[in-house]
Amino acid sequence: MCGIIGYIGSKPATPFLMEGLRRMEYRGYDSAGIAILDGATLVTRRAAGKIAKLEASLAAAPVAGHVGIGHTRWATHGPPTERNAHPHLSADDTVAVVHNGIIENANALRTALQDTGYVFRSDTDTEVVAHLVQELFDGSLEEAVIMALRKIEGTYGLAVVSSRDPGKIVVARKGSPLLIGIGEHEHFVASDASAILAHTRQVVYLDDGDVAVLEADGYRVLDIDALPLTRKVDKIDWELGAIERGGFAHFMLKEIFEQPQTVENTMRGRLIVEDGTSKLGGINLTHDQLMAIDNIIITACGTSWHSALIGEMMIEELCRIPVEVEYASEFRYRNPIVTDRTLCIVISQSGETADTLAAMREAKRRGARTLGLVNVVGSTIAREDDGGIYLHAGPEIGVASTKAFTSQVVALALFTLKLARKRGLSVTRGMEFAQALAALPAQIQQVLDRAEQVEHIAAEFKRAPNFLYLGRGVNFPVALEGALKLKEISYIHAEGYPAAEMKHGPIALIDEMMPVVFVAPHDAVFDKVVSNVQEVKARKGNIIAITSRDEPALQGLVDYEFRIPETVDLLTPILASVPLQLLAYYIAVQRGANVDQPRNLAKSVTVE
Ligand code: G6P
């Protein structure tokens, strides 16, 4: 979603701002802009649409200056036009503001400001901040911002500059992430570490309620009463290469191909094959607490919700503890049954999804312990959970989640293994599961080595208007995830369904035009799936099957087949999801879609 970047130092600000905006493009946006202090004048450039348009406007009329802020906007209040693009200026053009989040009392503030003569130039909630800061300014930008914040209700990551106090950027965080980057005689602010990684690895993650003043030679963090705070300096430990395409046509393809390593990284130092268990340093759950768990709730959104469904089956099967999976957006608004013996597992690649964060806070409020499965280090969920398992999948840039998904399932498998061994799973069964986990990286590589086969299947079906994905048991969530990947990036309508449930509705859709993807590895429900394949064939559907061995029962029924290696039933989703990622990818590419930045989608949905 929206992205914030700011630079203050001795060098021209524009290249830093534009590079930062480019690096945040993956998050999803529909307009962009910058504001730069050129001497005593504040100059803004904004454009609807892609950053290339903003670059063209800057090339035609460059802006000089060493202090500036920039923004990519994903429209919420008002359409994605130039007039609604950030930065927004105060009425007297002395204050510029970029903002992520939502100001809930914007209407009331707007009316009050209009009554005192302020004229608004956009439909956004953000513009009130610019006018408020102008109104309250009395010599110090940070004091004016702090006074303005006291009047604001809602969430924000904010960066503000003013020509009346030009040597600083004032930033503030409440509910929307911000970090400060520390350079040599220069400082950065960003909502996403990838925006500044090329220039510094030293960062300070701000907490909710923090205000910070950035100058070329230093920074100060303050609380809402302007009292100084100390915040620790962290080091970003990934390389620049992790956020670059490195020879691949798209980030999504790169991330699909990284999965042998990312799955390995999720397990590194954690899987203990010889004892048939796992070691998870960050879960902060004692033996007694693990033994006391009565029920587990897993909450998440999107792809992370699909991994939660797989987690449910793993935990129930091996730990015999009841598990419920809840969409985070639903969980937070109902009256869930949570006790102090409930463990709430929260899954989020970004660690910033607004609904997932709110669901975690709600579970905590009701007395549950929370365990975060998060990829982005230092993100809000990772900082607020009671314990966690970092995925260590590295930055995921493609909007359609791939490597984070397989790492989530692996992290769930590691947790299941640990809990199951505590709760009575035999060492022999634990070892069998652990060995199967250890074999996964090489098996994923075997799938990737045959990516071309999937590319051929994609060519056959790239014009299909609809797709059906069917699976049973632990592979039903894989069918859901396969369908989600396809619709996200190719815009083909696709549905995932439990294979047998298909008879109760979707079967009406099947004819010779309908491709049906069966996730059918040789597991406990394979024979049942064969019956469903026959039902589709009888109605002339085109069948693509993901199988794991030569299956005589499927002969003559299947039009296209892709073979994955065999593993234990509960881990088949990891191997079966990889060809489905590839299928969605190749179909989208062959249809000419923008794979890494699909329309309307955001990488991290930070609004409700
Ligand atoms: C957005 C993304 C999805 C992602 C979902 C949850 O909708 O487009 O790819 O699965 O958010 O994101 P999270 O970061 O919480 O896993």
Features:
18 helices; seven-stranded antiparallel β-sheet; eight-stranded antiparallel β-sheet; Glutamine Phosphoribosylpyrophosphate, subunit 1, domain 1; 35% helix; 27 strands; Rossmann fold; alpha/beta; binds 6-O-phosphono-alpha-D-glucopyranose; 608 residues; globular; 3 domains
Helix/strand-derived category reads alpha/beta
CATH architecture of the largest domain, by name, is 4-Layer Sandwich
CATH superfamily of the largest domain: Aminohydrolase, N-terminal nucleophile (Ntn) domain
Largest sheet: 8 strands, antiparallel
Mean pLDDT: 95
Rounded to the nearest angstrom, the distance between the terminal CA atoms is: 12 Å
Q: What do we call the CATH topology of the largest domain?
A: Glutamine Phosphoribosylpyrophosphate, subunit 1, domain 1
Count of strand segments: 27
Radius of gyration: 26 Å
Q: What overall geometry do the principal axes of the alpha carbons give? A: globular
- Supply the number of helical segments: 18
How many separate domains?
A: 3
- The poorly predicted ranges are none
| Percent in strands | 15-25%
Major sheet: order of its strands?
A: 3-2-4-1-10-9-11-15
Ligands in the model, by name, code or SMILES, are: 6-O-phosphono-alpha-D-glucopyranose
Fraction of residues in H or I helices: 25-40%
CATH class of the largest domain: Alpha Beta
